[in-house]
């Protein structure tokens, strides 16, 4: 049985055939993808078996589309909670363990009470226990130093980190655009 159109999102690639975004993966609902095809803003790279019909036309739903016009990615990513997690790869920067997002917190390396700023350079991902243990102390008082010195990442670095977290559902037509070069890198090692 064919899936319903609702479960047929299109993977959106930039004009250079890289996904617009890896994490979250750039997916458009089928209506948006079909509309972009009709507006001639995208090329269809791959299709689902699933078709949609209207009185005047029938078309197979696009599974991969690429933008005709290249969208430059901003070099400086937004300083958001999520992007800090992504920079730190969802890993507590003190005990180095992985945690689901809802179990992660933020730690000010130099505590706010001691003049520490809320910035890329002073905020790191921490699990709740490490955050509690470190408390309001300076790194030299607690002996707890972040695994990596926190810096502002580039958009490229965040994209690369996002690649490490594939979405739950991957249509087979998407794989070539997401993982081929990772496999190639592994092979050449
Ligand atoms: Zn921890």
UniProtKB/TrEMBL annotation:
Write the record's keywords in alphabetical order, separated by commas: Endonuclease, Hydrolase, Nuclease
Give this protein's Gene Ontology molecular function annotations. Answer: endonuclease activity
Q: HNH nuclease domain: from which residue to which, for each copy?
A: 79-132
CDD domains in UniProt? HNHc (cd00085)
Instruction: Name the InterPro entries on file.
Output: HNH_5, HNH_nuc, NA-targeting_endonuclease
Coiled-coil positions are: none
Protein name (Swiss-Prot/TrEMBL)? HNH endonuclease
Species for this entry: Dongia soli
